[in-house]
Structure formats: structure tokens, C-alpha cells
Design a protein that fits this description.
About 40% of the residues lie in helices and about 15% in strands. The protein is of the alpha/beta class and about 260 residues long. The chain folds into 2 domains: about 90 residues, Leucine Dehydrogenase, chain A, domain 1 (Rossmann fold); about 110 residues, Rossmann fold. Helix 1 runs parallel beside helix 7. The chain is globular, with a radius of gyration of 19 Å. About 40% of the residues are buried.
């Protein structure tokens, strides 16, 4: 049995369905999303480029607004507010994390995004699920039978993605184990049947911390020591796992926002 959870293959299935959906829409304009990106953060730049490529390939208009640590807060606020109020824009994203200099204004910036345009679930209104969380849940639905009945641990539960993951699972009526990235908390991993890790700390979780047959979902792109895969029943690869599903889940949210706003 193949142990790899193929996010690339599932993303292709979702993409094909989204293309059919888009082709059936009689539209006066294309769906439109604007993404604010910290140009000094390589992962943010890479992810923004991936989003732009996929959006344009699908026929979704995409605008990337770059900022940096020395961008005045007032300038960034005015730009976010501008697109938040522009009727032709269906989704507004502020790519996190922000530079340390702008982080004190994070909540202010996010609060400028109307719930109907919060396509990455950044402000937690529940109208849209975080694209990463939505992607993870889609993978579990596709590959792991009866996953909701299993013991689920979320490592990095106090972070942006981990926190969203915990909230989403609780809203589904589940009781996930929230684990911080401190190694002294990892004793609970032995009882977990599914481990979702979103720390971004390479090889943080070691083989001796987990039990045989566990399912490993790597949101942090390398959180699990590769030797963990020998114990796992299934796992997401670092490349082609959660990433492709995150991107297509975001596009699904953009199209959903577009359709909601066009049918008034």
C-alpha cells in the first residue's frame, strides 16, 4: 500500500471541478483577489507566486501588493482599505507573518478586510475556512477513513495555522490535543493516531516520539524527521503534500466569494 498522501493529485481533482464551475458561470468580469506580501520574506514571496500562477491559470485575476519592514503603517493601511472597499475585488489577503516592525498593527490591518472578502479566514468570522486548514481537512477526508474518530494532535497549536486548525476541529465537534513546539510537551504524541504539525521547525518531531501506524500531516514543510515515515501508516511529503491543496483551497474560496457577491 502506498503510504504517501498525494496532495498534488487531490489538488488536480479539485482544480478540474473548479474549472467546470468557472466555465458555467456567466460573468461580466473575472473573479479577483489581491494579496499583500512581505517582499523580504522568501517563503511569503514563493507562496504568493504559487498563488498567482494558479489564479491566472484558472482565469482568476490576481494582484500582488508588496511591502517591506520599512513600509509606513499608514500607507499599508490605506492600500488594504482601498481594496477592501473596491467592488471588483472578491478577496483580500495579508500574507503572514508580518515584519516585526508592522506586527503591532496586524489586527488593525486584518480588521479592515470585510468578512465577505476574507478568503483565507484571517479574521475568524467563520464565513471562510483558512485555506491551509481546508486543505488539510480535504486530504484527511480523501485518504483517511473515519479520521474524525481518531485521536488528533496539533503541534504548534499556539501559532497562526495551528491555532486555526484547533478551532476548526473543535467546531466539527472533535477534541484535538493542542501541543506547543516545546519538546517537553511531546509525551502526548505517543497517544495520537493523527499528528498535524505546523511549526516550521525542521525535523522537530523524532521517530521515538510517535507510535506505529500514526498518520503524519506536515504543514510546516519538514517538521517530521524523515525516519518518522517508517512508523507512519500514511504521511504527506514535504513537497506535493499540504501545499498544493492550500493553494487550490484558496482559489475555491475566492470563487465562492465571487459567486456570493455576484448573486445579490
Amino acid at each position: 500500500m502506498d503510504k504517501i498522501i498525494d496532495g498534488k493529485a487531490l489538488a488536480k481533482k479539485h482544480e478540474d471541478a473548479l474549472r467546470i464551475n468557472l466555465a458555467q458561470i456567466k460573468k461580466a468580469r473575472n473573479p479577483m483577489v489581491v494579496s499583500f506580501c512581505n517582499q523580504d520574506d522568501p517563503p511569503s514571496v514563493k507562496y504568493t507566486f504559487m498563488k498567482m500562477q494558479k489564479a491566472l491559470d484558472l482565469g482568476i485575476d490576481f494582484s500582488a501588493e508588496e511591502f517591506s519592514a520599512d513600509t509606513p503603517e499608514e500607507k499599508l493601511t490605506k492600500l488594504v482599505e482601498k481594496y477592501a472597499n473596491e467592488d471588483s475585488v472578491d478577496g483580500v489577503l495579508v500574507q503572514l507573518p508580518l515584519p516585526d516592525e508592522l506586527n503591532p498593527f496586524k489586527q488593525k490591518l486584518l480588521n479592515l478586510i470585510p468578512p465577505k472578502k476574507d478568503v483565507d479566514g484571517l479574521i475568524g468570522t467563520g464565513l471562510f475556512m483558512s485555506a491551509t486548514v481546508k486543505g488539510v481537512i480535504s486530504l484527511l477526508n480523501e485518504y483517511i477513513k473515519n479520521w474524525q474518530s481518531k485521536i488528533i494532535a496539533v503541534v504548534g497549536a499556539t501559532g497562526e495555522v495551528g491555532g486555526d486548525m484547533i478551532l476548526a476541529l473543535k467546531k466539527m465537534g472533535l477534541k484535538p490535543l493542542g501541543i506547543s513546539r516545546r519538546a517537553d510537551n511531546f509525551k502526548d504524541l505517543k497517544s495520537a493516531q493523527i499528528i498535524i504539525s505546523a511549526t516550521g521547525q525542521e525535523s522537530l518531531i523524532k521517530q521515538d516520539m510517535i507510535t506505529d501506524g500514526v498518520v503524519l500531516i506536515d504543514v510546516g514543510l519538514g517538521d517530521f524527521d524523515p525516519r518518522c515515515y517508517k512508523k507512519a501508516s500514511m504521511y504527506t511529503p514535504v513537497i506535493g503534500g499540504v501545499g498544493p491543496m492550500t493553494v487550490i483551497s484558496l482559489m475555491e474560496n475566492v470563487v465562492e466569494s465571487y459567486m456570493r457577491r455576484m448573486v445579490k
